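name: query_chain
kind: protein
chains: 1
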Amino acid sequence: MSRRVAFLAAVVALATAGALPAATGEPLVGTWTVKTGGKGSVVIREASSAFTFVAGSKGLNLGCVMGAAGEGVGFAELPSHTKLPAGTYHGTFGFPGQGCSYDVRLVVKGNTMTGRVDYSENDNVGGPFTFTRVGGAPKATGRTYAWKVSTKGNGATLTGSGRVSADASGGVVGSQGSLSVAMGSSRWKLTVDPPGTLKVGANGTFTLTLSVEVTSGTCLDRAGTVVISKGHAKLSGICTSPPVSTAGTATLR
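structure:
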């Protein structure tokens, strides 16, 4: 199993825990530079089913865990799943079952995050880890938007809904939602998550770009992108299908 597939499988598995609210400035979210225990940086975002860990612009190296820039390097459970104290998270660096992973207890205090290794697969050496936040703590726009899609076109039907929060620059910091796709005889269900962007204009215009993952249905390329704007939705990159543009009801409130 490739590292990309392993990462997606781990995050998709957490999706069975149910729908969750969009982020409103969760302290774990952001970019963190490694200070002790490795080198590089990690970008942490909140998705429908988990926090996702992606290697930063210069990659990430934590013990036996190595990831190139933009590569998935782990995940953490959402607070509603763990009942841990505020600012404390159960995370995983690496890919369980692939010979290299660390179960870690992450604690965020201000702009510092520490990671205590509670379990190391194959007893690989690693940890403890210390990280420093790049920039300030995340701040949502103060408003969570609800989106809804019911569109058709070019042989495809898209239906779904969700919620999304963005920071002041339009970067999506939290997302919860799902999308159902019918294309010919194929049927897929997708989660709708960061990374993404949100631009809100005048007279109800908007452009919401989010990442999607296929969680149900036969498909090889399970990761793609959806772009939702007023009255339109475009789906790209999944299941070896060409980009498809649809029209109908697509709203943001």
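note: Residues 1-24 have pLDDT under 50 and may be disordered.
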